[in-house]
Amino acid sequence: MRPEKKGDPVTSSHVPLRSQRGVYGISVTSELTGIGPQTLRLYERRGLITPTRTGGGTRRYSEDDVARLQKITELVAAGVNLIGIGQILQLEAENAILAARNAELERLVQSEVPDRA
Predict the structure, then answer these.
(1) What CA–CA distance (Å, rounded) separates 107 from 117?
(2) Nearest 5°: CA angle at 102, between 101 and 106?
(3) Residues 23-47 pLDDT 10s
(4) Which residues contact 2 (CB under 8 A, 6 or more apart)?
(5) Gap between the terminal Cα atoms of the chain
(6) What is the rounded CA–CA span in Å between residue 42 and residue 44?
(7) How far is CA 86 from CA 3, 4, 47, 70, 112, in A?
(8) Is residue 104 within 8 Å of residue 83, measured between CB atoms?
(9) For 48-102, how does the pLDDT look when each residue is reduced to its tens digit (9 = 90+)?
């Protein structure tokens, strides 16, 4: 559902962006989001959220994860089921990728076409 993270900060030389770095344990994430730990685990099983893991397997949630959980909470409150939420999140991710590609193509076209004055 969400684009996979490129490596675990504990086991990889890849250093994720600050917003992607898993820093919150499940209890802190539960407090921050108002979502119970069991529900967080359910969302993970359903593929709606993918926290990073420490070398010992402990879940670590990032700022991006917390924002995603807030979006999930809004969709649940609107009456969307978990399958629908997964599809919405997938489409939003794909849309963001396409928008970035479109912006890049526009930039390339602008750099190729001389200004007409």
Answers:
(1) 19
(2) 120
(3) 899 999 999 999 999 999 999 999 9
(4) 48, 49, 50, 68, 89, 93
(5) 46
(6) 5
(7) 12, 15, 8, 14, 39
(8) no
(9) 999 999 999 999 999 999 999 999 999 999 999 999 999 999 999 999 999 999 9
